[in-house]
Amino acid sequence: MKKSLTLGFLAVIVLFHVQPGFSQTPDEIKALREEIKSLREGQNAIQKELQEIKGLLAPKPAAPQFKETVLSIEGKPFKGNKEARLTLIEFFDFQ
User: Fold this and answer.
1) Residues 6 or more apart whose Cβ sits within 8 Å of residue 89
2) d(CA 18, CA 40)
3) Which residues neighbour 78 within 8 Å (Cβ) at sequence distance 6 or greater?
């Protein structure tokens, strides 16, 4: 009986004894916190870069629509009907 009681007591001590080797020192905890902080800063930097890339890849606004414009060609050389509703004007650059 005494032997089984001793074995039971030893089993309880072995099972519920917290070993100090598994605990972390304050310096280790501080180092882990600093590492987590640097990882968060890195994530924030990556997120900012992704937002910039998304901005660059965003579809550009549509080209401005052409507006009806009235130009006076009075006294200028032309071909065709003088009363035409539409006039095409070509601009040349001979350089």
Assistant:
1) 71, 73
2) 33
3) 87
pLDDT of residue 30: 93
Yes or no: say if 33 and 49 are a contact pair by the CB < 8 Å rule: no
Find out whether 89 and 71 touch, Cβ atoms under 8 Å: yes
Beta-carbon contacts of residue 42 (< 8 Å; ≥ 6 apart): none
If you average pLDDT over every residue of the chain, what do you get?
A: 82
Below-50 pLDDT ranges, the chain? none
Return the structure tokens found at 95: 């350089």
The answer to whether the Cα torsion of 62, 68, 74, 80 is positive or negative is positive
Sequence-distant (≥ 6) Cβ neighbours of residue 32 within 8 angstroms: 24
Sequence-separated (6 or more) residues with CB below 8 Å from residue 71: 87, 89
Q: Is the pTM of this model over 0.85?
A: no
